[in-house]
Design brief:
Layout: E1 3-5, E2 22-26, E3 29-36, E4 48-56, H1 58-68, E5 75-82, H2 85-96, E6 99-107, E7 113-120, E8 126-131, E9 152-158, H3 162-165, H4 175-184, E10 188-193, H5 198-205, E11 214-218, H6 219-226, H7 238-250, E12 256-261, E13 264-269, E14 274-278, H8 293-306, H9 311-325, H10 338-348
Helix pairs in contact: 1-8, 5-6, 6-7, 8-9, 9-10
Length: about 350
């Protein structure tokens, strides 16, 4: 179960009362998931024991998860696709899941991005081989917030979008311009990243944080940006996690920082609240793969934020949606309506 110190209900800005919906922009791609019997040593062989494909990339995953959760608000995407079979597949999938594709632009300059995901059958650990494709060309000009009435703009993934990671006229990554324009248009901004080397994490993530209302970040990324070692597994240092979250707030995050890891998540607010939530104790036999679990967690939290839930309730749903996603090798195919996801937490319980 979640607990929160000094918890107060997050104030809702009057500007958001007349808004509804979530728009997500950034990486759109197709994941080709290969379930393998073991991770091979260099120059040796592993057997592929299962093969599937599905949605990939932060915006695509989060939006499809929300659709499968039966979110009662509009969903829309922003991104750049290739004029190819994968691009057409994404557009059709969005239409099938009531995701507005009006700002999913198409180009012939590069193919639609894709990732080969190698998921180890017995451990669930996965390794990614990624082709940036059209995502490398996504630029501020592709984002239009003038007509949207959405409440939340979710941006993902920073550090995997070449044109938006590059410095703009003010010296900051051009993603900061996109987030600033979203905030100016009245949207609540949320951000997710990918794990890369520490120096690049600090150089690209830290400058955009003043434009971010809610930050999703994992333990590795939090360490890289803040320089605070938080530990792993049984060596996780809870006090260090809280220090890292507060350090990210000090770098400019405006409302909430959510640090997540396999055992659970910690949320810290600019008002001094700290909330903890354990992950669902899903049996190992029920886990088919971990691809997309972080985005599923974000989808659950974003659902709650949109509906003005208190943070402990948002975290509980996030943990349950993440658990639901683990039941299939693809990122979203096992995500279910909200009540079914929450039932997983009641059935299996939560880690301490």
């Amino acid at each position: 179960m979640a607990f929160c110190r000094r918890q107060v209900r997050t104030p809702t800005f009057i500007l958001l009362f007349m808004r509804s919906g979530l728009i997500a922009g950034g990486n759109w791609l197709i994941d080709h998931v290969k379930l393998i019997d073991a991770w091979p040593a260099q120059d040796s062989l592993a057997n592929i024991v299962g093969l599937s494909s599905g949605n990939g990339g932060g915006p695509y995953n989060v939006l499809k998860d929300l659709a499968r959760m039966q979110a009662p608000f509009p969903l829309a995407g922003i991104g750049l696709l290739g004029d190819d079979a994968d691009g057409r597949r994404i557009l059709e999938d969005c239409k099938a899941h009531r995701i507005d594709p009006a700002q999913l632009h198409v180009t012939r300059e590069r193919p639609t991005s894709y990732t080969d995901v190698m998921s180890v059958r017995d451990t669930g650990h996965r390794t990614y081989f990624h082709d940036r494709g059209t995502n490398a060309l996504l630029a501020p000009g592709h984002f239009d917030f003038t007509a949207t009435r959405a409440r939340i703009f979710h941006f993902a993934y920073l550090l995997l979008l070449d044109a938006l990671d590059a410095a703009g006229e003010d010296g900051r990554p051009r993603a900061a311009e996109v987030l600033r324009r979203a905030r100016a248009a009245g949207l609540r901004t949320t951000l997710d990243c990918v794990s890369t080397d520490a120096a690049r994490q600090r150089a690209i993530v830290a400058p955009v944080l003043p434009e971010v209302d809610t930050l999703f970040i994992n333990d590795y990324e939090a360490e890289a940006v803040t320089g605070i070692t938080v530990g792993r597994g049984e060596h996780l240092d809870r006090a260090a996690v809280e220090r890292a979250a507060r350090a990210l707030l000090a770098l400019g995050v405006r409302d909430w920082v959510l640090v997540h890891f396999p055992e659970g998540a910690c949320a810290a607010s600019a008002r001094g609240e700290v909330c903890w939530q354990g992950s669902v104790r899903l049996p190992a036999s029920a886990i088919a793969g971990t691809a997309g679990a972080g985005d599923a967690f974000a989808a659950g939290v974003l659902y709650g934020l949109h509906e003005d839930w208190p943070m402990p309730r948002c975290l509980e749903l996030g943990a349950c949606v993440a658990a639901a996603s683990l039941r299939h090798p693809t990122t979203s195919d096992a995500v279910a309506p909200v009540a079914e996801c929450l039932a997983l937490g009641r059935t299996h319980g939560f880690r301490a």
